[in-house]
Amino acid sequence: MAKKKFTKQALSQWMKGEGPDSDVVISSRVRIARNLRNQPFPLMASPEQSSSAMEQLLCVAESGRLNGLGKIEQIRMSELTELEKLVLVEKHLISPSLANESRNSALILSPNEDISIMINEEDHLRIQCLSPGFQVREAWETASKIDDIFEEQVDYAFDEKHGYLTSCPTNVGSGIRASVMMHLPALVMTGQINRILSAVTQVGLAVRGVYGEGSEATGNLFQVSNQVTLGQSEQEIIENLFQVARQIIEHERSARGKLLDESFLRVEDRVRRSFGVLTQARIMDTKEASQRLSDVRLGYHLGLLPEVDSLVLNELLVSMQPGFLQMTFGEAMSPEDRDRSRAELIRSRLVTLS
Amino acid sequence: MQCQECGKRPATLHFTKIVNGEKTELHICETCAREKGELLPGTSSGFSIHNLLSGLLDFEPHNPNPAARPQAVKCDTCGMTYAQFSKIGRFGCSDCYKHFSERLDPLLKRVHGNTVHVGKVPKRAGGHLQTKREIDRLKKEMQGRIEREDFETAAQLRDRIRELENEMSG
């Protein structure tokens, strides 16, 4: 079977662009949830109903109205293997729910992979826009424009009081979930992270580890997102997230500065040690790889590891995940095989640079 | 303190949720928690927002008359019952919002701290909402002008409000 385009490269084209504040913020994301009027939500829809909803939404893509996004791809989930779906999840292009539920669902993907439109997820329509670095306002503007294009063609479930109606009451109103993925190693090292994260949850935002459960964020990667969708306008939601994330960025930077001032040798030792392990180790599990890569990323941004390419670090975040490893090294691997291949992959990507 | 679910056993699990400064507390016993199949924080790692949410949905005190209990309420359009909704934490269709409306505001208040949408309005499906909001805004501004005795601007605003109101009825 021919390889799908999105499986060829771990790093989406959009992530190759340099974004603002990329020393702390890896990417920004906005997703909006919409539903069709007078049709049951995907959860309660019969196969005929979900198929008709899917066709109606794919029609918008067929009509050429989305041509402004470039040469878009339409992918029906039923055409994909489990491994291909897993790769899409690892690239954050679809949700685990879209990959796991066997409904009549589909994906519309822009050529840069910065826009992914999920059909028949928990809601009929989920528009997701990704941007490199700290660009949450820009991501919202793009998502809102695509929303307008769909609204010209299909009738949305909307009521004056509750706004856009969604399957889950946690999304009703604006249907917007905006988030920033942040790398906060210095706040973790200096023990300030819990205080900051609990403060963040007090102002209507949620924080979770990007990989791993709860606050046990592996690789010091945290996703900060809005919790409230009703009773605040999209601008207020975006602005609130923006201001809070801006403060976290400043805290992280000042913690990094402090680390350099107070324990330069220890920090330099730590990042070089991790770089050494990554370029020499023969077995590497995901958890260790995430932690070591976090050290190397910190080292790069502190100017201690100038030989590293930040694009390679972003690529490895995705390409070292189980699905992508299997795609690269051949299907059906045992966990031991994966740890060996992961070490090989990281070595080859980091060594060619040094 | 007694369990809010069964009203018999002492409550041993306590949740506090704070949204926009508004505090909600939930006190239940372990037996009820287990019966409901909820994974509570601290007891397992499988806890999710939906588990917490369904805990909040079942927040109603016990009512001896089964017909009057919220669980018996059903959405005529998609057939989902309130009991099903409170279990999975998802609506079946947009009409569920109408059929469960009585129970909805307290829930939305707990989750969002608000009950009314103020954000984007779709151009076609939004009807007159955009215009209504504009009228509300103009009325407030007009009031402010009157208080400052700027009657000329207030009169202009009044005319604009009339225009918009005519547009809506026409």
TrEMBL record, chain A:
A Pfam family for this UniProt protein? ATP-gua_Ptrans
**Coiled-coil features, chain-numbered ranges:** none
Instruction: Tell me which EC number(s) this protein carries.
Output: 2.7.14.1
Q: Which residues bind ATP?
A: 27-31, 92, 126, 177-181, 208-213
Say if the entry is tagged with keyword Transport: no
Q: Where are the transmembrane segments?
A: none
Tell me the leader sequence span: none
GO BP field: phosphocreatine biosynthetic process
The chain positions of domain Phosphagen kinase C-terminal read: 24-255
Q: Where is this motif: RDXXRA motif of the pArg binding pocket involved in allosteric regulation?
A: 338-343
Protein name (database record) = Protein-arginine kinase
This protein's species is Cohnella terricola
Print the organism lineage.
Bacteria, Bacillati, Bacillota, Bacilli, Bacillales
TrEMBL record, chain B:
Q: Which domain of life is it from?
A: Bacteria
InterPro entries per record: UVR_dom, UVR_dom_sf, YacH
Q: Which Pfam families match?
A: UVR
Q: What SUPFAM superfamilies does the entry give?
A: C-terminal UvrC-binding domain of UvrB
Return one Gene Ontology term, BP aspect.
stress response to copper ion
What residue ranges carry the coiled-coil annotation?
none
Could you state a single Gene Ontology molecular function term?
cobalt ion binding
Query: Which stretches make up the UVR domain?
Result: 132-167
Question: What is the protein name for this chain?
Answer: UVR domain-containing protein
Organism this protein belongs to: Cohnella terricola
